[in-house]
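Standup notes
- DV: blocked on the single-chain target, sequence here:
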Amino acid sequence: MKTPATRELFAVAAPGLEAIVAAELRTLGIEGRVEQGGVAWSGDDASLSRAVLHLRTASRVLVRVARFRARGFPELERHAGRVDWSGFVARSDAVALRVTSRKSRLYHEGAIAERLLRVMGAAAVPVDEEDASAHVQQFVVRFLRDECVISADAAGPLHRRGYRQQVGKAPLRETLAAAMLHAIGCTDVPLLDPMCGSGTIVIEAALLARRIPPALANDGQRPRASRMLRWSDFDHAAWDAAVADARRAMLAHVPVPVIGSDRDAGAIAAARANAERAGVQDDIAFEQRAISDARVPEGVGALVTNPPYGVRVGDTGELRDLYAALGNLARRRLPGWQVAVLCADRRLCAQMRLPLQPAFATRNGGLAVELMQGRVPASSSREPPLE
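- DV (later): unblocked, structure below
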């Protein structure tokens, strides 16, 4: 098949992160249109390749396959039958469908999926098994007011970098950790996470500082398998060129200190293992320390962390002291530093006694959270760094 000159593309964003994804796309030379749930743009396979390779904050990248109106199943099958599905699905492939329908005559999502699978002539797998094999192509099908839009997932869930095989009690998605870093704009200053858990924030910070794309976040910097590479009309030269350009831009080491500490020895062991799988084990200093004993690097930097929320891990009353200790660390030893804390309860964040303002609101693990950020007053008296 001939490679299309342009495709209709869409970067899916978690609620509240659309503007951050749009800003990240601009750094890739892509001007998109912010919509509810993500960012849309038209681009060739070079543009698609850059997005899949480099996007750190988006959840998925979709390619529009078809758009049509259908108020009955015969219409649905007739329009779907005009699509050349062989460009996206080979004979040996299975298909996973995510179907939603709102305010439409065709409202039974299971029946819609059944008709589409019949037209495609493909075997179906449950959506939660979509990543078990590279031979599974996911399509996102959305009905709204009788208009059907079908999109092909180009690379699968982008938050699954592959390095995080050991997690803590309340893990933070890699894409949300990256969004925290992008929101505060501190990518070239020392960074500290004194409650690092399994290390997601500091690992994402090291990858960002070294300019390692998330699709190359492994010890051998091999490209992550992307479903679009199996499409019959995909321009493989565009992907190869994007990977080569990315490798040339990568740095050998982080240019600034990145420190992750936690009082739990098991968390530190998990963080080290995850960093090794990401290929940045030598770029991060992991240490078992209490918050009050955290080692602070020289210079002015950023404290970025995801403390317990008091919902699933810990108790709200008991957490007040933890947030107060975090605030004490910032006020006494980090004057002038940027602070960013993912927070589910502003009353807990208030215990830090810092001038924090919301940067964005989203959800983490089904919970409503805000990134509260601000700068520690420079008048704070700094204690000598711990060695």
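- Follow-up: The longest strand covers residues 60-69.
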